[in-house]
């Protein structure tokens, strides 16, 4: 069959019958002639079609050789935030049970790993604190480092509707993003100065008594330490660091502090920094000071996730330090529970994170890397070094829809099914499990990730159990009690269910922390974190700052949207440049420009716009021709290794007419 149209369900709890341009029109990739339809194996003359049996045998022999020669930690897997929960669960189980390593990670490492670390430290759980229905009841919205109008249009529309109903709006973003034109206050901090900005807002809340003293006394810890730190962040000092005028900082703090039901929504502009986890912690401080989390007096702190299952991939344990349900691999109790269910001892030391995998490959320590549904050569930072890592690794397996930039460097390529061709569940940004069912069969010999993982396990001599996705989710609920009340049958009957949901006879928790926080002492934890500079700053050689992100018509590496109707809406990448910078470099709108960083170079068409401040540039990573991530650095969050995509020092020169 063919997909004629995509129509969102009118009873969908989040979309409510609406879909963004990508959801409605980016389905052409499903039957693209470029879809991979049979396995490919690298031979003397390049990649050649082979049977599944030949491909699986080659993979199994390569995995055995890696383990025999260098031990289980010589193998690693990058799971997929576009795969289902059940597929992610099976992938991490294979790595831990069959291979014997915790070397499994997913792309949340590159986006919201600071959210997981920061929210867990502050509140005890890694998910957003409130559901979207609650957030859209807020009387003040603080939207930070996010562009939901383009990157999360359904959410963006609902937030805008609440503003039009009278909610006050504070936007904090260097760029004039879509919601900014509706904001009561638009804060435009210099990239990399979030912690100073959030400390400045907290300073005003404390100085003007806009705090919930009873909540802080009964349900929070760390106030004396934070108060002492905030003495160093008066508005004038914060203005010197961030460039935000003192009067704007005070106005924003008063709007948030005087609201009856404030909510914080944030995106990758908070997390993708050298100190991204500190950014999440200091942003969470604002909700704690106001008593606006875990109460009926506000709607907490809520990250906008990127890919359709980036929350679920982490929930299922596709992380090097955490098991399904976020039990630490180093915790004997959490590890013991999984060992009892899986029937085998598990390694107790953390595995490699994605950047560490690439480093280990370049050093010769990693002998096999399995990449599932991720185009790391296009999406990961310092792309030239990523290519070096793949080329140095003896066995690279790419499980993909298309011959991506990453697949071109693989030894084995396995054709995979898309989200419309598989059965299972996803978890959205506000922790809701939702069902997905196949509308089409995969083309030709392509298989679902679930089937492929089982096939690789069988070729390797391992039996993972969990014959169906429903069985996999049921077993996951045994390993992770927070999911024990969720099943395919219940989802089919009731619709979306949020976690935690430990009981099949009770609803999940849409709003977290009402009775106590999930921290060991039951308290919310304030964090006294000083501002520290980003990994790179402008200088005489590289005087501009590059910010990377998304645009409305495309999705991440663009492998799907560039093969769909949305390509006609946005056919090529461009570099946003402020008019003053364009004039200084004698660049006209549409001219070809060369951007150089300390790590690489890329070419774009110039787009002269006042949406970007002077001294800053903006581009996306949707197009392979631009190679934006050849520019970005290996600087990463000091806690989670999330890359600093939002601050790269660059220089610019015009090179002629439109490329």
TrEMBL record:
Organism: Nonomuraea phyllanthi
Entry keyword annotation includes Secreted: no
GO biological process: formate metabolic process; respiratory electron transport chain
Membrane as UniProt keyword: no
CDD domains (UniProt xref): MopB_CT_Fdh-Nap-like (cd00508), MopB_Formate-Dh-H (cd02753)
PROSITE patterns according to UniProt: 4FE4S_MOW_BIS_MGD (PS51669), MOLYBDOPTERIN_PROK_2 (PS00490)
Annotated Gene3D superfamilies: 2.40.40.20, 3.40.50.740, ADC-like domains, Dimethylsulfoxide Reductase, domain 2
Name listed for the protein in its UniProt record: Formate dehydrogenase subunit alpha
Alphabetical UniProt keywords: 4Fe-4S, Iron, Iron-sulfur, Metal-binding
GO CC list: membrane
């Amino acid at each position: 069959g063919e997909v004629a149209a995509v129509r969102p369900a009118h009873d969908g709890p989040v979309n409510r019958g609406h879909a963004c341009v990508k959801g409605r029109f980016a389905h052409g990739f499903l039957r693209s002639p470029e879809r991979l339809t049979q396995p490919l194996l690298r031979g003397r003359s390049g990649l050649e079609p082979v049977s599944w049996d030949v491909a699986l045998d080659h993979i199994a022999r390569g995995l055995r050789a890696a383990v025999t020669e260098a031990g289980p930690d010589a193998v690693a897997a990058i799971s997929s935030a576009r795969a289902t929960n059940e597929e992610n669960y099976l992938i991490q189980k294979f790595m831990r049970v069959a291979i014997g390593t915790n070397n499994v990670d997913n792309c949340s490492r590159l986006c919201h790993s600071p959210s997981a670390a920061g929210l867990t430290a502050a509140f005890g759980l890694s998910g957003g604190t409130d559901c979207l229905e609650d957030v859209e009841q807020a009387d003040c919205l603080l939207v930070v480092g996010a562009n939901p109008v383009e990157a999360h249009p359904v959410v963006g529309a609902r937030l805008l509707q609440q503003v039009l109903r009278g909610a006050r709006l504070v936007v904090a973003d260097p760029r004039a993003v879509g919601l900014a034109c509706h904001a009561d206050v638009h804060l435009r901090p210099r990239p990399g100065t979030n912690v100073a900005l959030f400390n400045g807002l907290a300073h005003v809340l404390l100085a003007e008594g806009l705090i919930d003293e009873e909540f802080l006394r009964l349900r929070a810890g760390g106030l004396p330490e934070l108060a002492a730190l905030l003495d160093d962040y008066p508005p004038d000092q914060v203005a010197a660091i961030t460039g935000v005028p003192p009067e704007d900082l005070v106005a924003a703090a008063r709007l948030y502090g005087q609201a009856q039901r404030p909510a914080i929504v944030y995106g990758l502009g908070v997390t993708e920094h050298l100190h991204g986890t500190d950014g999440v912690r200091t942003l969470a401080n604002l909700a704690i000071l106001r008593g606006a989390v875990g109460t009926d007096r506000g709607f907490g702190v809520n990250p906008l996730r990127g890919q359709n299952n980036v929350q679920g991939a982490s929930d299922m344990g596709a992380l090097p330090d955490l098991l399904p349900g976020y039990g630490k691999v180093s915790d004997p109790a959490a590890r013991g529970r999984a060992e009892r269910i899986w029937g085998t001892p598990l390694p107790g030391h953390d595995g490699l994170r994605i950047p560490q995998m690439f480093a280990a490959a370049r050093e010769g320590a990693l002998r096999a890397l399995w990449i599932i549904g991720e185009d790391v050569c296009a999406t990961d930072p310092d792309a030239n070094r990523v290519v070096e890592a793949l080329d140095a690794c003896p066995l690279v397996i790419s499980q993909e829809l298309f011959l991506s930039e990453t697949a071109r460097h693989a030894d084995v390529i396995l054709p995979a099914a898309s989200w419309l061709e598989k059965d299972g569940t996803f978890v959205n940004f506000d922790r809701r499990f939702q069902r997905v069912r196949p509308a089409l069969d995969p083309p030709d010999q392509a298989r679902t990730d679930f089937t492929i993982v089982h096939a690789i396990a069988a070729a390797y001599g391992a039996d993972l159990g969990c014959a169906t996705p429903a069985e996999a989710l049921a077993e996951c609920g045994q390993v992770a009690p927070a999911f024990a009340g969720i099943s395919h049958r219940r989802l089919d009957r009731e619709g979306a269910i949020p976690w935690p949901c430990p009981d099949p006879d009770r609803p999940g928790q849409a709003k977290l922390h009402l009775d106590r926080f999930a921290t060991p002492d039951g308290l919310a934890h304030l964090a006294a974190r000083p501002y520290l500079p980003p990994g790179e700053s402008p200088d005489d050689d590289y005087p501009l700052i590059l910010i990377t992100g998304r645009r409305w018509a495309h999705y991440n590496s663009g492998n799907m949207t560039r093969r769909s109707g949305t390509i006609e809406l946005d056919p090529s990448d461009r570099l946003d440049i402020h008019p003053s910078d364009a004039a200084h470099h004698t660049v006209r709108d549409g001219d070809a420009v060369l951007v150089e960083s300390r790590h690489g170079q890329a070419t774009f068409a110039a787009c002269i716009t006042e949406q970007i401040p002077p001294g800053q540039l903006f581009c996306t990573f949707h197009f392979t021709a631009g190679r934006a991530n050849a520019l970005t650095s290996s600087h990463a969050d000091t806690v989670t290794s999330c890359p600093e995509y939002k601050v790269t020092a660059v220089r610019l020169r015009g090179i002629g007419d439109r490329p």
